[in-house]
Design goal:
Strand content: 15-25%
Radius of gyration: 15 Å
Oligomer: single chain
Number of helices: 3
Distance between the termini: 32 Å
Largest sheet: 4 strands, parallel
């Protein structure tokens, strides 16, 4: 993590299609632009168990020219793919439409 604030790492643990990652990136870019702060790097990370959301998000990440290896298709509750990473921002929403019964046994 860049101590000068030039590198922002954003993680979404239930990204679905990646909309909140995209909006977060846009918001930081706009804030930095308004303050005339240059040389900002934003890296997006995420993990989701939903097959369709994963595919859509990975496509969006490719379009944004972000690192697709930072988008993982795993159960956030039981298979943390980013244990060694530190993030500036952690965003997430409730995992609507996903059955978490299998995860419950491992978490509780």
């Amino acid at each position: 993590m860049d101590v000068n604030g030039k590198l922002f790492k954003i993680y979404d643990g239930c990204f679905d299609a990646g909309g909140m990652l995209s909006v977060s990136e846009s918001r930081i870019v706009e804030e930095r632009r308004q303050k005339d702060i240059k040389n900002t790097t934003i890296r997006l990370y995420g993990q989701d168990i939903n097959d369709e959301g994963y595919a859509i998000c990975k496509t969006n990440i490719l379009i944004k020219e972000q690192d697709v290896d930072n988008i993982r298709h795993r159960d956030t509750l039981t298979e943390d793919q980013f244990k060694k990473e530190k993030f500036n921002f952690f965003i997430t929403k409730s995992p609507f439409g996903v059955n978490w019964k299998n995860s419950k046994k491992k978490v509780f």
